[in-house]
Amino acid sequence: MAVRSEASHKAILEATMELLDPDSGEGISVQKLSIERIARVAGVSKTTIYRWWPSKVAVVIDSFVASHIARTPVRDDLPGLEALREHMGALVETYATHEGRLISQLIAECQHDQSAMKEFKERFWHNRRAAAVSIIRRAQEEGDIWSELDSVGVADLIYAPIYFRLLFQSGPLERAWSDRVLDIALTGLTPREAA
Questions:
Q1: pTM for the full model?
Q2: pLDDT per residue over 37-63, tens digit each?
């Protein structure tokens, strides 16, 4: 039974991403996606889906997270500042694909649905923000970012331009650009020698 449950769970996540992927031939929006359609493609009942997820948005978020975490790892085998640069670069490269369009749709969906916003924060945002903050704290401990600065505030400062560019489509999401964003931030964040 556990094997069947795991197989069903995986099939639901994969079916959801397939339905939302424009390269799959389906490419429907989050708004047009339905639990019925996910169930049909996954080969499960709607009841099976509702056993694990309270809503369509929760299914989409978990499907997205499974793919997203694999594509944007938080490296602990690198110095903090290098890991931060690597993470930001992987994030913009991921958001330059259909996953960027998907996260934009999820954010839009959350603007008028407070339960969707709660799901988004609990299932995605809090954990990914904590991962970014952990890299920044490591860079602070290593002396590459001022230790006196609030690490959450630093995360907001350097990651906000990525989400701004993603949502407003104000330019390409490229690693060279994210490197420049970090370099600009570091100009004001790097410890200075005492006079």
A1: 0.85
A2: 999 999 999 999 999 999 999 999 999
